[in-house]
Amino acid sequence: SLPPMVRIDKAKIMSLAHVNAAVRHLAMFHGTWWTWLTTQQKKKKPEYVTSLMNIDDVETAFMRMKKVDVKGTKVHFDHFIKQYVKLARTRGLSEEKVLRVERYAKR
Q1: What is the 3-state secondary structure (H, E, C) of the chain?
Q2: Which of 39, 66, 72, 25 has the alpha carbon at shortest distance from 53?
Q3: For residue 102, which of 92, 88, 90 has the smallest C-alpha distance?
Q4: Calpha distance 26→33 (Å, rounded)
Q5: What is the pLDDT of residues 51-81, one digit of tens each?
């Protein structure tokens, strides 16, 4: 049976055990995604090319260890960065640090 789910406060620092579990499962997810994409490619289905993180992106980033296009990544994560700025303000981060996050988001 699976262990019970627990609620985690994302604004607090996580324990090393939680970080290790998150990274391990993220790696398993990406491996599963790559396996699914290669299966779609073998079946000649368009998903391996048309998905947001397609097989070329995955192989470039994880197999060849090359940089993924920054512009494409920024478009995908731009929404999250804006949320980080709001979260930083509501959690009382100093204005100097909030401005650093905003400047990073505009790059």
Answers
A1: CCCCCCCCCCCCCCCHHHHHHHHHHHHHHHHHHHHHHHHHHHCCCCHHHHCCCCHHHHHHHHHCCCCCCHHHHHHHHHHHHHHHHHHHHHCCCCHHHHHHHHHHHHC
A2: 72
A3: 88
A4: 10
A5: 777 888 777 777 776 666 677 667 767 777 7
The letter for the amino acid at 19 is V
> What's the Cα-to-Cα distance from 22 to each of 15, 18, 28, rounded to whole Å?
11, 6, 10
Q: Which residues of 49-70 are buried (b: 16+ CB within 10 A; e: fewer)?
A: eeeebbbebbeebeeeeeeeee
Instruction: Give the CA count within 13 Å in the CB-facing half-sphere of 57.
Output: 16
The pLDDT tens digits for 12-31 are: 777 888 888 888 998 888 88
| Token pair 């699976």 in the structure block, residue | 2
What is residue 104's predicted lDDT score, i.e. its pLDDT? 74
